[in-house]
Design brief:
105 residues, alpha/beta, five-stranded mixed sheet, 4 helices, 5 strands
Amino acid sequence: MALEFTDANFEALVLKSDKPVIVDFWAVWCGPCRMVGPIVEEIGEEYGDKALVGKLDVDHNPEVAKEFGIRNIPTILFFKDGKVADKQVGAVPKNVLANKLEALV
């Protein structure tokens, strides 16, 4: 299951994580986000012990979205050692996200 990242917990959960982290920047009203959401959930279940996988609602957490320059959603950022290691903008098949994560694990 995907974690819920917020402006309040982002630094502790994402930037200070000792595992790779996927952050799905999304919003309730975004159609493509609803297509990517279940894929992110599946990856979270499959990589549960090797990576952190979560979602950040840009409408409720504008600070983190602004800090990372999120202008289009869905945007998925891949973090390693507290830094952005990869990025995917727009809806893509599961294997694209899994391959990007696998390169960081």
